[in-house]
Amino acid sequence: MGDSQVSTQEGPSVACPSPTKNKTDSTDANGRKGLTARLRTTRSPRRPRLWFEILLIGVSYWLYSLVRNAVPEQRTAALRNADRVWSFENSLGAGFEHSVNHAVNSVTWLIVSMNYYYATLHFIVTIAVLVWLFRRHPGRYAATRLVLFATTGVALLGYYLVPLAPPRLMNGGSFVDTVLVHHTWGSMASGNLKNMSNQYAAMPSMHIGWSLWCGLTIFALASVPWVRVLGLLYPVVTLTVIVATANHFWLDAVGGVVCLSFGFAVATLVYGVLPYRLPRRVEPPRTPLRTRLVGLGTARGAGAVSRAARWSSYRAGNTGTAAPGPGPSAASTVPEASPRSGS
Q1: Distances in whole angstroms, Cα of residue 39 to Cα of each of 141, 149, 270, 287
Q2: At 201, is the secondary structure helix, strand, or coil?
């Protein structure tokens, strides 16, 4: 008896999916989708809530003031840095702060007005622009506010790393401290309120950082031409004021512009676009189609049950009897006819 050979037919092989590989691919896909969804959620503008914004701005400014004033007042280093800045500006032929300070100080009504401008508009205009954004441009509010917060946050780093005395506190600079000379009320930079604020936090200038933020926001979003022009003039006038009152060098203003640029970079990174290019209004979140269909079916079912209940109540009221329940049907309660007698 010979050996029998068994031959098998070879056909095209079919690749069977690996359960492990599919599971891994599904997990990776879900992870990517989840990450994309989180990024979209972060970048999507949301409708601001008034109570939250008031609390956030109040707490943020309190923390800013606390940290700014907690920076050690390094008087020696601050005066040395002021001398260096002043020498550098003069080497460029751009040390005009002294001339502007003395020229404006000779006009009493003008310098007093500038003192009050420096002490008050810094806060009033910034808050007014925030309120305007909240009411008229809610879709752009959060991103534009982020610019302001990031600008202010990085400025705190500058106060710590580069203590700088303002021109009015320089030794032998012969600058006029206009608040002291004219007894202007309201400024924390001089006079009786000077101990409430860090006197050596001149670099960068947040008067310029905030005013330029206001000016650019008004120019980009306002629809009235003369209001847009005022927006551009506001930081220019602020620069004149901080120099005329001897509270800042013009290089401090450059520092404020650098901080504002950082703020715009942060907001653009978070939202993927400049804040002013975001939609003006916030669209309400869309409900998925499946959820809407389920809700529609539930509403229709509830409506049918309600109509049936009203019809049962109507019948019970007209007949004086209770509506039939889930017991035997009406047909089963009819008595059967008696059988006829056979003939």
Answers
A1: 19, 21, 9, 19
A2: strand
Q: What is the DSSP letter of 266?
A: H
Answer for the pair 187, 193: CB distance below 8 angstroms, yes or no: yes
Low-confidence spans in the chain with pLDDT less than 50: 1-21, 23-24, 26-27, 29, 35-36, 39-41, 322-323, 325, 327-343
Q: Which two tokens stand for residue 71?
A: 């920076």
Residue 167 in contact with residue 101, Cβ under 8 Å? yes
pLDDT score, position 18 = 47
pLDDT at residue 75, rounded to an integer: 83
Torsion sign over Cα 101, 103, 108, 112: negative
**Cα–chain-centroid distance for residue 258?**
20
DSSP one-letter code for 186: S
| Helix %, strand %, coil % of the chain (to 5) | 70, 0, 30
Distance (Å, whole) CA 81 – CA 88: 10
Cα gap 69→92, rounded to integer Å: 32
Is pTM, for the whole model, over 0.85? no
- Coil, strand, or helix at residue 12? coil
Cβ atoms of 53 and 134 within 8 Å: the answer is yes
**C-alpha distances in Å from residue 325, one per residue of 103, 301, 305:** 99, 20, 15
CA dihedral 312, 317, 321, 322 (to 10 degrees): 40
Sign of CA dihedral 271, 272, 277, 281: negative
Determine the Cα–Cα distance for residues 312 and 305; give it in Å rounded to an integer.
11
Residue 22 to residues 27, 32, 33, 78, 139: CA-CA distances in angstroms? 8, 15, 16, 64, 41
Return the structure tokens found at 196: 């409430």
- What does the block give as tokens for 82? 């002021």
What does each C-alpha distance from 37 to 27, 42, 45, 164 come to in angstroms? 15, 9, 14, 45
In this prediction, residue 55 carries a pLDDT of 79
Q: Give the orientation angle of helix 108-136 with respect to helix 225-244, to 10 degrees.
A: 140
